[in-house]
Design goal:
The protein is α/β, with parallel strands linked by helices. It is built from eleven helices and twelve strands.
């Protein structure tokens, strides 16, 4: 038979146990969750953020600068990136396959420069359905499935070239535009900006704007040669030429040199490389519209990281562009833009 003292002690212990349980339950409601470590997913999975960066191609100097900027952002923000894209900028199937592979792998997010403004819509939609957000950069994509668009204002950039050429030609002349390739939103907008800019100058005639150089320097060179012959550039009837990206600019440069009309035609191109900058200094190119690909890669990865960590991001982010002519080449800011230090990142 238990004594009254023993019974009282057991009742007291049981009461204390109830009070401790209630206290723990209340504490779990009121305490905020522990802050996440940098680089850790906000989904609660505990995995580091892994962001896939898919460029249009991997050979042009432009994309190397984008890659370096993406690496800088990944180190500063403590996330992992995987850089993978097609070798050439006309391999649409390869880019679609790369995006599909990243979706299957379940990466945290995809940063994409679409080769075609409509063909990549389905892969992007598949990513979003798999709860993998997409940031588009460099070249726009139809639809609104992507979180943000990080790029140059390409129409405004094209108008910069038109203004430069109009000034150099003193308001009149016959002009050729060698386009890049159909479906590339970024270059289409540059071409439109250039043509719209010249339309405001009544002294200009566009003698050709329906030819495409294609994705490589070789195809651009071949098309440039044909254009120069067809429009009798050697007779002096062509006053100016505009090309909307690195490969068309270099292909046209080679064709102008081969035909002997370099320095006789006012030539404005887009993007930069060591060879293009050397041609600008030598007077074979009159102006280059230069983007900031390093900043583009940096901001694209930063935008995706902020979105994954629950921060609001802008729907459209302009990464900037400027017209560089020979007299600007010794400007320190231009030097940094044309020749960023990529070695420390790649």
């Amino acid at each position: 038979m238990k004594t009254p003292a023993v019974l009282r002690r057991r009742v007291l212990l049981a009461g204390l146990a109830v009070l401790v349980a209630v206290s723990c339950k209340d504490q779990s409601k009121s305490d905020p969750p522990a802050p996440e470590a940098p680089g850790v997913s906000s989904s609660g999975s505990g995995k580091r953020l892994k962001i896939a960066v898919v460029p249009k191609g991997t050979t042009h100097e432009f994309w190397k600068s984008v890659h370096a900027g993406a690496v800088k952002a990944s180190k500063e923000l403590d996330v992992d990136i995987v850089w993978k894209g097609p070798l050439k900028e006309d391999d649409l199937k390869a880019q679609i396959d790369v995006v599909s592979t990243f979706v299957a792998q379940g990466v945290s997010g995809i940063v994409l420069a679409p080769l075609n403004d409509s063909a990549l819509r389905a892969p992007v939609k598949s990513a979003v359905q798999a709860k993998i957000p997409v940031v588009v950069f460099d070249s726009d994509l139809q639809g609104d499935d992507h979180v943000s668009f990080v790029a140059t204002d390409n129409q405004a950039a094209g108008k910069l070239a038109a203004e430069g050429m109009a000034k150099k030609l003193e308001g009149k002349g016959s002009v050729i535009v060698l386009r890049y390739q159909e479906g590339s939103a970024s270059t289409q907008n540059r071409e439109k900006g250039f043509l719209d800019g010249l339309k405001t100058k009544p002294g200009f005639e566009i003698v050709s704007d329906n030819q495409y150089g294609g994705a490589t320097t070789e195809t651009a060179f071949q098309k440039s040669e044909s254009l120069l012959v067809a429009h009798k550039a050697q007779t002096g009837v062509v006053s100016g030429i505009f090309t909307p990206n690195e490969s068309t600019t270099f292909g046209m440069l080679q064709a102008l040199k081969k035909s002997g009309v370099n320095k006789k035609v006012k030539f404005y191109g887009f993007d930069s490389s060591d060879k293009l900058v050397a041609a600008l200094r030598d007077g074979d190119i009159d102006g280059l519209v230069v983007q900031n690909p390093f900043n583009m890669g940096y901001l694209a990865v930063k935008t995706m990281t902020e979105h994954l960590r629950g921060k609001p991001v802008e729907k459209r982010i302009d990464t900037g562009a400027r017209l560089v002519e020979k007299e600007h080449l010794d400007d320190p800011a231009v030097k940094e833009l044309l020749s960023p230090d990529l070695a420390k990142w790649l």
